[in-house]
Amino acid sequence: MAPRTHDSARGDSAVRRREYAHFEHKLRQRWDALRQEMRETLLRAQNEGYADIAGRVSDLEDQSLADLLVDVNLAEVTRDVGEIRDIERALRRMALGTYGTCVSCGQPIERERLEVYPTANRCASCQRAYEHDHVTTPTPRL
Ligand SMILES: [Zn+2]
Q1: What is the DSSP track for 30-95?
Q2: How remote is the CA of residue 94 from the centroid of ligand 1, in Å?
Q3: Ligand 1 centroid vs 75 CA: distance in angstroms?
Q4: What pLDDT, on the 0 to 100 scale, is given for residue 110?
Q5: Ligand 1 centroid – CA 14 distance (Å)
Q6: Distance from the CA of 93 to the center of ligand 1, in angstroms?
Q7: What separation in Å is there between the alpha carbon of 114 and the centre of ligand 1?
Q8: Predicted confidence band of residue 102 (pLDDT cuts 50, 70, 90)
Q9: What pLDDT, on a 0 to 100 scale, did the predictor assign at position 142?
Q10: Backbone phi, then psi, for 32, in 5-degree steps?
Q11: Of 60, 3, 47, which Cα lies nearest the Cα of 69?
């Protein structure tokens, strides 16, 4: 058991540092699943002219793998890479101790929200406002 410390000034409902491990586990599990998905995508890509790249995948560090996939720019992996980046950012916020705090309003992100979206960096209401302001894709009408 780690001794109780007073270095956290966050509110009672905030995700505390001692709870980070729970979310870190979720993030790393998701990371592993995504990485596996991307490797499989690259193996398929091998048949489409990416043999050289696919052959190098097993030697790469995770970070380089993500960068490589951005370079390859396969439409299929672009979404996965985006999610990997989100996971990396979430892990970085954990290292900084700001994980679980909304980047927009500074309030704690709802715990239930983090359970469903461990990469969330905004509370639910700020996220709604953000999406309202930033969604530029026109809604298809039929
Ligand atoms: Zn907020």
Answers
A1: HHHHHHHHHHHHHHHHGGGT-HHHHHHGGGS-HHHHHHHHHHHT-HHHHHHHHHHHHHHHHHHHHH
A2: 17
A3: 32
A4: 93
A5: 12
A6: 16
A7: 13
A8: very high
A9: 59
A10: -60, -40
A11: 60
How many Å apart are CA 45 and CA 116, to the nearest integer?
31
Radius of gyration of the chain (CA): 18
What is the predicted pLDDT for the residue at 90?
Answer: 96
CA 135 to ligand 1 center in whole angstroms: 18
Contacts of 39 (CB under 8 A, 6+ apart): 57
pLDDT above 80 (res 16): no
Question: Would you state the structure tokens that stand for residue 65, as one six-digit string?
Answer: 């793998």
- pLDDT single digits (tens) 35-93: 888 888 777 766 665 555 555 555 555 556 656 665 555 666 777 888 889 999 999 99
CA of 104 to the centre of ligand 1 (A): 5
Q: Tell me the CA–centroid distance for residue 47 and ligand 1, in Å.
A: 46
Domains of the chain (ranges, CATH numbers): 17-134 (1.20.120.910)
Cα 99 to chain center, whole Å?
12
Contact 108, 15 (CB under 8 A): yes
